[in-house]
Amino acid sequence: MFAQLCIGKDVQLYEWQDVESIIFETVSIALNEKYNPKVSYKDEVIIGVNSMSGQKAFKKMVYYLSYVGQDTPKEVATELLSEW
């Protein structure tokens, strides 16, 4: 759902490698890893009254959903695995 809002590609056109790239992107963001984005984001996303780049919006959503307190990679990984 967040990908549909932030990624610059229609969900109807996703292929399996797109899904894998979004999963990679999500895990990399949640674990605060340095990486080169594998997906293209929309230039602008509007959420409520806020406007920001698709990449920034996606990162904010991932951080919000994966934050568990201390936000260490181990805690985040555990939370992500338990949620999926």
What does this structure look like?
By secondary structure, this protein is mostly helical. The chain has one domain. It is built from four helices and two strands. Strands 1-2 form a two-stranded antiparallel ribbon. A hairpin with a 2-residue loop joins β1 (45-47) and β2 (50-52). The protein is globular and about 35 Å long. It starts with a helix and ends with a helix. The mean pLDDT is 81.
Features:
52% helix; mainly alpha; 84 residues; two-stranded antiparallel sheet; 7% strand; 4 helices
Outline of this structure?
This protein is mainly α.
| Series of secondary-structure elements, N-terminal to C-terminal | HHEEHH
Count of separate DSSP helical elements = 4
Query: Averaging pLDDT over every residue, what do you get?
Result: 81
The proportion of residues in beta strands is 5-15%
Q: Topology, pairings included?
A:
Layout: H1 2-6, H2 16-30, E1 45-47, E2 50-52, H3 54-66, H4 73-83
Antiparallel strand pairs: 1-2
